User: What shape does this take?
Amino acid sequence: MEIRITILCENLVGKLVGSGEHGFSAFIETEQGNYLFDTGSGHSIVANSLILNKDLRTVQKIFLSHGHSDHTGGLPEVLKLKERVDVHSHPHVFLDRIAVLKENEKETKRFVGIPYKKGYLESLGSNFVFNNNFIEVEKGLFLTGEVPRKTPFEKPDPRLFAEVDGKTTQDIFLDDQSLILDTGKGLVLILGCAHSGMINIINHVVDKTGKEKFYAILGGTHLDFLTPEQLEESINVLREMEFERIGVSHCTGMRAAFRLHLEFGERFFYGCVGSVLEI
Ligand SMILES: [Fe+2]
Ligand SMILES: [Fe+2]
Assistant: This one.
């Protein structure tokens, strides 16, 4: 075993331990150190890390997939346990974000951006390292940076908005970025919410790494909130790809997870709290 990835925070619990929440976080153990990708919404990360025996104090770097509160809300809980640590993200991670939801014909606006100011997080020991472009953050470990939107079928979630210069605009999520581990068995791609489109992200990774062989695709795909056509088009592309495992979580939702399981059989698993992928 060279690498072990454990789902720390996720919507569902399926391994008899831990708590579920609306959020995502993955604990990554490698021979060169441990890393954290996203922090969940803050309710379960510490409790789940203890019950899953993952020591958050050992995390060498933290990566944030984007600024939504269900991925960044646990940051203070992790920082309080640690000495100063690099937190890698896109500069737009601090944008104010709104979700407009229709519930029983009633429209509600909810703040869904990062719940903390940069200065507060810095006072707890966060050293923000911003990137806009694809970068190698550690040997064999990459962040996608901004992902070009190229596929015609991957559309943004129409319920999500950002507040820029006092104006509410459709959120285009320039900060949406994913983590790539270049392993001996192929690339492992960890998505946060895939707001830039799972297939756009995969295409960008292939373009930047020059590699087409994936070992695993993990994380939130956001397919639950999009159209059945987008799900089917995404599956059409995945069908042509080379990968061993697809372990989706969080905003993938049940409808898309069932469909992916049906399509990919044994290669599929649901990445609930406590799920482990060893490479
Ligand atoms: Fe999310
Ligand atoms: Fe999100």
Summary: The first strand starts at residue 4 and ends at 9. The pocket of fe (ii) ion (ligand 1) is lined by residues 24, 68, 70-71, 193, 220, 250-251 (CB under 6 Å). The radius of gyration is 17 Å.
